[in-house]
Amino acid sequence: MRIFLSKIIPMFGKKFVTIDEVMINTDVLTTKFHCDLAKCKGACCTIEGPNGAPLLEEELPKMEKNLKIALSYLPKEHLDVIAKKGWHRRNMGSYYTSVYRDRACVFVYYEGDIAKCAYEKAYFEGKSDFRKPVSCHLFPIRISNFGGEIVRYERSDVCRPALEKGNEEGTQLLDFCKEAIIRYYGEKWFTKLKEIKVK
Length: 199
Prior knowledge:
Helices cover about 35% and strands about 25% of the residues.
């Protein structure tokens, strides 16, 4: 595979670099970002729309395996949705978690007024070997496919507090999402990404 660590490619009004045939929007490299749950209240888990978190097909059996423990943390209204509609849906060939009232992912539970993930709670309590969907782990980084993978930063109003905190603390989006990027692409790929310098 060819590696272009310094070549900047203009496309759709954006700039991209390429590593191992994966295109990365340079916003991923230049944005400062750090989640601020105290202000956003976990809003990325409750974004309005008919689809919940995007799922990889290979994640479905892992989630099914750990489903019972995840269900034990959920509010009754979310359990009712899962009982009636199932915990995931397929739309135009892609998989997503089901949602409650076209808003909250069905795997959301609340600590006070903050939306959190039941799978992640189970994982950190040592009761599950599946942390959460990689799309959630990476957010606000998204991976799209247009004849090849494109890694991009998805701007969202719900993440304004994260941009403010990131700028205050000087935290790069790339470093904030380091663990998730390594989970998906591996440590060597992440190291290559870190070596890219964008003027």
